């Protein structure tokens, strides 16, 4: 007799585990299948994000920033610390402990909410059945009224730089360096590349970033991207745009990377190479040939705005479907799907998903960029406020960057909030809350913001949209 559930979720990442917990909370019998194991061979829930993505990279970013501050910036505060050293093994160890605590926390939440955790590989069969292949190789078929596919993504491999996880690593390998590489190459100037490059640059690596695109951070607002490029270059990241990697050769402990740019063919020798050119959906071995679920040529599962696949009762969420590959997007899709299974009419607002790059300064945005709005023919008013004019930022010795608010010129409705600087992610979230309720720039300008806070920069930028900023000179209307 096979097991039967109201909901079976394949994948226990931020999309899958959240969907499973929500389903159980709504009274649905729920199972969640996950095959990922930690270094000790034990089941590790949380997916890429908790194990080898968002969380461990933030741990290293915070540790490396504290080291950088102690070494280079404590003197400003009158703090003398002498010779500062970084114990890389201890930093990596701390990161691993945080990961262990959080993955264990998900297991506890499953238990507390009555989610059945199943270890192994899940494959969707026809007729709303799932084949579970257990770690010992035995199989079992599980039936479900509803199935949620949340198998996530994995790093993209590129033929010119095959990953060996020793000298050439992917984002997972870059979280495990036991020493600071002297010369580090990062292939890809996206979110992952910039974050990992920052970590090792702060600790003393000479970092070169090779980006095939001619434009830096094309998804960000142009003003923000320009400021970011200037700041990262100042921090020591050698960012080469229009640099297409054509090959690599491992020579003992070194790697010679070949690339072409405007000046022709180049090659540089490095101690380590991180390949961070993006991620691709994990849909191989996920679907039986007769499952009925359609995927596109890049491996993404076709879904509608409610994450329904071509098979009734089968849903797909997170990195395996269209849209931004972000943990918070996956989680909210999981919630939406489960609530719709229960009969609610829940919809997700895909226009207001915040994006964050956890470098220092932090970069974050929500809504549309100025260049997108101009291309769409929308007339806008723009207000900016620099952190250099923020008392709170001055007190913290963190005055780089600015807040930018974009509003519709006719209605004053806020269409985008873009921040580079301290607390960018938190400030953008404030903007997102307002935008969800259709805020105007005037609305934000009329609110009382506590003083002194970084949030006042958002307040002032909103005031600046209509020429009413107090703590900077307003631009004269043409």
Task: Describe it.
- Helix content is 29%, strand content 25%.
- The strands form five sheets. Strands 1, 2, 3, 4, 5, 6 and 17 form a seven-stranded mixed β-sheet that branches.
- It contains twelve helices and 22 strands.
- The mean pLDDT is 97.
- The protein is α/β, with parallel strands linked by helices and 478 residues long.
- α1 runs parallel beside α4 and α1 packs parallel to α7.
- It is globular and about 75 Å long.
- It has three domains: 223 residues, 3-Layer(bba) Sandwich (FAD/NAD(P)-binding domain), CATH 3.50.50.60; 110 residues, 3-Layer(bba) Sandwich (FAD/NAD(P)-binding domain); 105 residues, Enolase-like, domain 1.
- Belongs to the class-I pyridine nucleotide-disulfide oxidoreductase family.
- One of its GO terms (biological process) is 2-oxoglutarate metabolic process.
- It is an enzyme of class 1 (oxidoreductase).
- It comes from Pseudomonas lutea.
- Pfam families: Pyr_redox_2 (PF07992), Pyr_redox_dim (PF02852).
């Amino acid at each position: 007799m096979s097991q039967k559930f109201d909901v079976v979720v394949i994948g226990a990442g931020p999309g899958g585990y959240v969907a499973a917990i929500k389903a159980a909370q709504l009274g649905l019998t729920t199972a969640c299948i996950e095959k990922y194991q930690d270094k000790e061979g034990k089941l590790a829930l949380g997916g890429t994000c908790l194990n080898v993505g968002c969380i461990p990279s933030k741990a290293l970013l915070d540790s490396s920033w504290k080291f950088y501050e102690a070494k280079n910036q404590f003197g400003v505060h009158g703090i003398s610390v002498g010779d500062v050293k970084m114990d890389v093994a201890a930093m990596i160890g701390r990161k691993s402990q945080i990961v262990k605590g959080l993955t264990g926390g998900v297991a506890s939440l499953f238990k507390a909410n009555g989610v059945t955790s199943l270890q192994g590989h899940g494959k969707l069969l026809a007729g709303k059945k799932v084949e579970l292949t257990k770690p010992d190789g035995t199989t079992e078929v599980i039936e479900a009224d509803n199935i949620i596919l949340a198998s996530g993504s994995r790093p993209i491999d590129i033929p010119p730089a095959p990953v060996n996880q020793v000298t050439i690593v992917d984002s997972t390998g870059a979280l495990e360096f036991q020493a600071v590489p002297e010369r580090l190459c990062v292939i890809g100037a996206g979110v992952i590349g910039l974050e990992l490059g920052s970590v090792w640059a702060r600790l003393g690596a000479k970092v070169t970033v090779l980006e095939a695109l001619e434009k830096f951070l094309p998804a960000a607002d142009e003003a923000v991207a320009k400021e970011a490029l200037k700041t990262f270059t100042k921090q020591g990241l050698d960012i080469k745009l229009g640099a297409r990697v054509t090959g690599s050769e491992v020579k003992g402990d070194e790697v010679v990377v070949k690339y072409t740019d405007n000046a022709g063919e180049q090659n540089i020798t490095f101690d380590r190479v991180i390949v961070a050119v993006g991620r691709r959906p994990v849909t191989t071995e996920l679907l039986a040939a007769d499952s009925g679920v359609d995927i596109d040529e890049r491996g993404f599962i076709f879904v509608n705005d409610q994450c329904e696949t071509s098979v009734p009762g089968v849903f797909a969420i997170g990195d395996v479907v269209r849209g931004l590959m972000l943990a918070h997007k996956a989680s909210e899709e999981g919630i939406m799907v489960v609530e719709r299974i229960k009969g609610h009419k829940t919809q997700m607002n895909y226009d207001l998903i915040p994006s964050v790059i956890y470098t220092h300064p932090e970069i974050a945005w929500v809504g549309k960029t100025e260049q997108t709005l101009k291309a769409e023919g929308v007339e806008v008013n723009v207000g900016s406020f620099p952190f250099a004019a923020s008392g709170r930022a001055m007190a913290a010795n963190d005055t780089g960057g600015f807040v930018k608010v974009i509003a519709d010129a006719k209605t004053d409705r806020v269409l985008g909030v873009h921040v580079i600087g301290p607390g960018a992610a938190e400030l953008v979230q404030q903007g997102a809350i307002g935008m969800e309720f259709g805020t105007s720039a005037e609305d934000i300008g009329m609110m009382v913001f506590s003083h002194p806070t970084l949030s006042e920069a958002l307040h002032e930028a909103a005031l600046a949209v209509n020429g009413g900023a107090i703590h900077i000179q307003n631009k004269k209307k043409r």
